[in-house]
Specification:
With 251 residues, the protein is of the alpha/beta class. 33% of the residues lie in helices and 24% in strands. The chain contains 8 helices and 10 strands. The strands form 2 sheets. Strands 6-7-8-3-9-10 form a 6-stranded mixed sheet, with helices on both faces. The chain has a 4-stranded antiparallel sheet with strand order 2-1-4-5, covered by helices on one side. Helix 4 packs across helix 5 and helix 5 (147-160) packs parallel to helix 6.
């Protein structure tokens, strides 16, 4: 279980990106964040991964406690949290397999990571590629692959961490609709199979309706809707998307 307790974030420039927010995410839930640009989705995900420390409130994880209680707790939380980004964040000159193996670096100490990773890690990376249908592209350079294939590598890299939590920030925003649906279906399937808790920010309402167990709508850093995907009627969508954002999220 993952809990946010009155978490708020104001950046040094004075931008209040997230108002006091409390959320409980049960293990294995596929939670989708909806909202316009500037709504606070990316800030919320950054807080969840400890990339920024909230100016107020706390984030706790079952079995770990507060992720900010110590550097050790934060490192352990990050080790068990996979991140998937909109722009893939792959190293183009490396092969698909080498990129996925980067997901295993955090499982080893600094000194050990200077040497070739164990055979077990290579097998896990290959299995991760197989789960997203790219085992036959393991030795291809990442920059030779399509956008959809690169995003699948990003998913495989996250899964190679053996995460308990996956955070995905607009993971299909740069893909065409058909490819985006296939990529999100892969992510959803793997999270279901492994019991992984997923928190995914999206702009595509139809994808939220298809895949989300639960949806949270954000506007101006505040939760304006929390419920099931089946409740996403036009009235709720108007509430989430009609008002123009008052600020832009920090990059």
């Amino acid at each position: 279980m993952l809990q946010l307790q009155n978490v708020a974030m104001t950046y040094p420039n004075g931008v209040a990106a997230l108002m006091p927010t409390s959320i409980t995410v049960p293990k294995g839930q596929f939670l989708v964040l909806l909202g316009p640009s500037g709504a606070g989705k990316s800030t919320l995900l950054r807080c969840l991964n400890g990339l920024v420390k909230p100016t107020r409130g706390d984030i706790t994880v079952e079995g770990l406690g507060s992720i900010f209680q110590s550097g050790r707790a934060l490192r352990e939380h990050r080790r068990q949290t996979g991140m998937i980004f909109q722009q893939h964040h792959l190293i183009g000159r490396l092969s698909a397999l080498q990129n996925v193996l980067l997901g295993r670096v955090g499982a080893h100490g600094t000194l050990r990571s200077l040497f070739p990773l164990p055979r077990a890690d290579r097998l896990l990376a290959l299995q991760s590629l197989e789960r997203v249908g790219l085992l036959d592209r393991a030795l291809n350079r990442a920059d030779e692959l399509s956008g959809g294939q690169q995003q699948r590598i990003g998913i495989a890299r996250a899964m190679a961490q053996r995460p308990k939590i996956v955070l995905a920030d607009e993971p299909v925003a740069s893909l065409d609709p058909a490819t985006g649906e296939k990529v999100l279906a892969d992510l959803h399937r793997i999270c279901r199979e492994d019991g992984i808790t997923a928190i995914v920010s999206l702009h595509q309402v139809e994808l939220a309706r298809r895949f989300a167990d639960r949806v949270i709508g954000l506007v101006h850093g505040r939760i304006v809707f929390e419920g099931t995907a089946s409740q996403l009627g036009q009235t709720i969508l108007d509430q989430i998307y009609t008002a123009a954002p008052l600020h832009m999220e920090a990059a």
